[in-house]
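Recap for those who missed Tuesday's class. We walked through two folding examples back to back. For each one, the amino acid string is listed first and its predicted structure tokens come directly after. Nothing is annotated here on purpose, so try labeling regions yourself before you check the end of the notes.
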Amino acid sequence: MSTQGKTYQFKLVLLGESAVGKSSLVTRFVKDHFDEYRESTIGAAFLAQTISLDDNTTVKFEIWDTAGQERYKSLAPMYYRGANCAVVVYDITQTSSLDKAKSWVDELQRQADPDIVIALAGNKTDLEARRAIETKTAQEYADEAGLLFFETSAKTAHNVTELFTAIAKRMPLEQLANNPRGRRGLNARDQVDLDRANGTSDGCAC
């Protein structure tokens, strides 16, 4: 089956410590907008955006932006369950945020779909003067863990589109074309609807 004229939908989840800029990254990607002051996400927020990989192939991400506060941690499996891909975000100015990101990666690799595509994003490169985590340190960890890796800035839009485009290119489009209703063929819209039917989207602050 050809991929010509195909649109593929994937469920994507964002994880990371509070205040690392997850919501700002998604808002920059979806709306090309940045708010200097944002209220913390409660539960999770839902957004969607498409990327055209070429004239014939479009990827649609249905994105769950999860809250980073510790009190919401128990809700995270509701949002990464069935996810095809994930962005785990840390703040390059906060050493502890990379430790938290590593724990999220470990959890995804243990509990999420074994084929999930995970990207590590070191956010806030606009605060270079306050950098606490060297690029090399994070890159070496990402390589060891088999992750995509980008340093980004939601404020300046640095590498934001590139991050999501790299994820889209990593998704198994040919496999889905050959087996559209197989294990990875259940698209993101189907998964989100199933989650709602099971009551797992309660608490979403969309």
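Example two. Treat it independently of the first, because the proteins are unrelated.
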Amino acid sequence: MSNTLFPVFLKTETARFLIVGGGNVGLEKAETLLRQNPKINLILVATYFHPKLKEIIRQNSTISFYERAFEATDLENKDFVIIATDKPEVNRNVRELAKGKGIKVNAADQPDLCDFYLGSIVNKGNLKIAISTNGKSPVLAKRLREYFTEVIPNEIEENITQLNEFRNQHKGDFNQKLADLNKATEVFSSKKKEKQEAKKYKRLVLQITLLFMFFFLGFGLSEFISFKELWHQTQYIPNAFYGMLLIGFFAQLVDGALGLGYGVTCSTSMMLLGIKLPAISGSIHTAEMFSSGISGFSHYKFGNVNKKLFFWIAIPGVIGAVAGALLLIYLGNKYEVITYGILASYTLLIGIRLIILACKKRIEKKQLKNTSLLGFVGGFFDAFGGGGWGPIVTSTLLSKGRKSSYVVGTVSLAEFFVTLAASITFFTSLGISHWYIILGLIIGGSIAAPLSARLAGRLPQKIALLLVAFLVIVFSIRMLLKIV
């Protein structure tokens, strides 16, 4: 048997660690220990200390250090020694002295000198997973840590707390308690069920998207233009098509990566072009129907969707979208100047909200309340204003401390159904107008959708939020000045 390692989790409150060496490796080992226990009892000995390691020492009162060569007396009253120098003779000398005192040793990049390894560690609240490659490939262990940190949801801490309460309150005997706990946790190992649900969703999204595309093309072509006229029109594609192509690409890139920005970016741009209000929202939702379907599918594929949260925001969001679309249809043209003012003010407030969100520091996770109301309000203003689902729903969920990638993925998937409801409402009442704008948004957004889903949670969120906020505020102010 080549791998005889036995994983053990140490309670570091009472353990005493010595690190010999203060360079890059010593810094890495110190940071590894401090991540698991910021108050760990740690002593460092080295002839040189990395500047960052000195800063860490200054910030942690439980760390002692000696800027000198290693001495045998440094091993007194120590439980574990980590050797991190670049001098093999020093490493072996420390190893032999430590072994003589019965102290366990770890030597960086020298497995033959090690009694134990410092594996890569996945932390999710009370869940902790240690990964080791038996000293063969620390880089692979690091990559596996990054992978599991990403795929294990933050909500696992809530599951652990609930299971602990269930176990403590269970009145049955040991066998009954074990059986009930196995039943309660079987969802975590039901891979086959997850795959079946994924395939089912993929088919559903593909079918709805294709049906809607055929409906859109068929309805538009049959009512407004023949194929001969369409070919003639392609020879005179307006310049606005190319502009909307770029706007659709940029808006979807930001929206898919951050969960917001598509509608408000497009709507403020189209208001400046003088497009009628119902046509603005109808065009945006028509185009967003395609890109959000692709984005939602991509997020689901990459595991960025919280299913429970999805249903709580998607169904009320659909209802709100239909209500907002109907209100805009019957008020938009009759009270055009007033409605322009309302929408420009609304997008201005959204821009300010984005700045506030970008400037917030990391906040603690809070309990979600009135999630269905949040979905309804987001859907209503999204349809009425041509955008707002992301800025309202995503920013609220992020402000509650939810993980960025899961918020973005869930909101993007729900947006598919919200835009579908709004688009059907606009189509049945208004028909299709400004085909070149719709087509530009569709092509640009569809190209960006898979890329933005891959970037979810990886873009510098603060910079992107400030950029979207700046554009929205500038466009909104220009629109207000235009109608005053």
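Answers for example two:
The CA atoms of residues 28 and 439 lie 52 Å apart.
The two ends are 81 Å apart (CA to CA).
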